[in-house]
Amino acid sequence: MPNDIPEPQAVDSPITRSVIFIVATLSAGQDHASAVRAWCADIGALVRSVGKRVPSGNLSCVCGFGSDAWDTLFGAPRPAQLHPFREFGPSERRAVATPGDILLHIRADRMDLCFELATQLTGRLGDAVSVVDEVQGFRYFDLRSMVGFVDGTENPTGREVPEFTMIGDEDPEFAAGSYVLVQKYLHDMTGWNALTVEAQEHIIGRTKLSDIELDEGVKPSWSHSSLTTLVENGEEVKILRDNMPFGRPGAGEFGTYFIGYARSPAPLEQMLENMFVGRPPGNYDRLLDFSRAVTGGLFFVPSATLLEALAERDPQAAGVNVSASEPPDDASASASASASASAEPHQEGSLNIGSLKGNRQYE
Ligand code: HEM
């Protein structure tokens, strides 16, 4: 019945000019947890109130929760594949995990809209959370990343978007939800700009001016494009990205805030493993010689319908044993993942694309 289909959050927002990314940690104590739960029911109304003032401004907000926060705030049931961010790569080139319980991805065509919504949302949370990272990003010329190449070209489009980003029958209680991975990168722009355009094009795997993919015979296996292209059973597995440049030129800060949405953490983690460890190991992404990840977090994005309903959840009242709802191996996997650690302990090397077609269940 169509009315039973949950409404997703604005994962598939149109491309906008401005963004604010906020990562916050949850303060200890039941009062703070209750405040955050109540806030979940307010988000939609706040987006409507602020957004209505500039109808052409395309204001949207996506809210996600980290693994530990989910247990504290909502208890069981929990999203089947939610776990702490898994680190990848050797110490000199590492995808690091950093603290984060709540992610806000606020997008609009004008920064004043993003700013006002961020003010309203964080103001209502008060001391229930501490904001640990806050980044204002901007669209750079013709959708170019900080490193000067057009970014987002190979994103899924049309019907591919829900197919690759929305949970379906594999986890019915969390249908129309998504997983989202964020990383804040800082670039060595002096080093990058010292390269020839041809060398940069080999690193990205596309031409700089015209944004055309390099021919297979020319594109190195260690290019960013090669290592982030995943194929399973002859079909490409995509993620939905909306990276944004940010920075403070006067302070020498030049960054890219990476954000990728997917139906499961598996393709996101496989891409990270390919980039940081290499495919095969050692054949890593040379973009990382000029880019350092300084944050990393994995979050679950409930459907908008569930987000509102979560306000009524009370793990204490339900008598949920929070620690018992932890998956067995994940916390330690996050802390101690080695350079060669597998990205997919749950799936034994398979991206499980069959499940995207609804004919296989996630394990
Ligand atoms: C330093 C941070 C990053 C920068 C500046 C960057 C930039 C780019 C650029 C310029 C492209 C080519 C155009 C396009 O198709 O979008 C691209 C492609 C892509 N990137 Fe990134 N990226 C970054 C990090 C990541 C990370 C962390 C992931 C995954 C976890 C990722 C996944 C992808 C994917 C899937 C593609 C499309 C590949 C294809 O189908 O050809 N990127 N990126």
Detailed description of the structure:
There is one protein chain. The chain has 363 residues and is an alpha+beta fold. The protein has one domain. Helix content is 26%, strand content 20%. It is built from eleven helices and twelve strands. It has helices at 30-40, 43-52, 67-74, 111-125, 160-165, 189-194, 197-204, 224-227, 265-276, 304-309, 330-336, and strands at 18-26, 60-65, 102-108, 129-138, 178-187, 230-232, 235-237, 240-241, 244-248, 253-262, 291-293, 297-301. Strands 5, 8, 9, 10, 11 and 12 form a six-stranded antiparallel beta sheet that branches. Strand 6 (230-232) and strand 7 (235-237) form a beta hairpin. The protein is globular, with a radius of gyration of 20 Å. Residues 320-350 and 352-363 have low confidence and may be disordered. The structure holds protoporphyrin IX containing FE. Protoporphyrin IX containing FE is lined by residues 145, 147, 149-154, 183, 185, 204, 206, 224-225, 228-229, 239, 241, 243, 256, 258, 260, 268, 271-272, 287, 291.
Instruction: Describe the largest sheet.
Output: 6 strands, antiparallel
Mean pLDDT: 89
Percent in strands: 15-25%
Amino- and carboxy-terminal Cα gap: 27 Å
How does the overall form come out from the CA principal axes? globular
Structural Rg: 20 Å
N-to-C SSE series?
A: EHHEHEHEHEHHHEEEEEHEEHH
* Unreliably modeled segments: 320-350, 352-363
Count of the separate structural domains: 1
Overall strand count: 12
